[in-house]
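re: that chain from earlier
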Amino acid sequence: MSSHTDEELLVENTKRFKKVPTLPAVIISACLCSAQIILAFVLPELCDKKGKECVLNSFSILIYTHGGHWAGILAIDQVLHLAHHKSRLGGYLEFYTKTKNIRRAPFYLVSAGNFVLMLIVIILHDLCDNDATCSHTFTKVDYLRGMITLESLVVICCNVSYIIILRDFNAKQSPPDVLRDDFATSIHLGGQIESIGAQQQDQIMEVMERQAELIRYLKDHSETLGRKILELTNQLALRERA
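^ sequence. v structure.
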C-alpha cells in the first residue's frame, strides 16, 4: 500500500516530461575548445614575429588562456551536474548512468591538460631557455600547441557524443525509468547469475550500477517526501493553533 502511494505521488510529479537543458552549455564547451585551437595557431603569427610584438609572447598568453579555459569548463561541468542531478531525481536513472562518464570527461581532460602544461613549462624552462639548439627543432609554442590541439579535439569528440545522446533522450520523451516495467526487469539478476559466464561480467556490473542508482534515487525520493510531509504537518499545526 505504501509503495503504491509513493508511485502515485511520483507519477503526479513526473506527468510532464522535462527536457535536460544542457545543449547550450555543451555547445559553449565545444566553442571554447575551438577557440583554444585557433589561438594556438594564430597567436604565434600575431605576437612572435618581428614588428608584431605583443605585450606578452604567445607562449605566456596561451598559458593564461588555458587557465581561463579550465575555469570555463569547470563552470560548465557544474551546470551539467545540476541538470543531470535534477533528471536523476525525476527518475531518469539510465540516462544519468549512460552520460555520467562522458559528461565529466571534458573537465578531467582539461584538468589533466593543466598538469601536463605545468610539466611542459618546467621542462622547457630547464632545458630550452639556456639552450640555443631547442630553437632548431621545436619551439616552446610548438609543444604547447600540440598539447592544446590534442586536448581540445578529444573534448570536442566527447561533446559531440554527449549531444547525440542528449538529443535522442529529449526526442524520445520517455517516462521515468522507475515507472518502466522493462527497467524494473533489467535490474533483477535472479537465478540467471549462476548461468552467466566470466565473459559476461560487464553485464553484471551494469545491472549492479543500475541497482545502485535506483537505491540512491529511492533514498533521495524518500527524503524529499519526508520533507514535504514535515512541511504539511507544520502547516496543519499552525492552522489548528490559529
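The chain has two domains: 19-174, 190-241.
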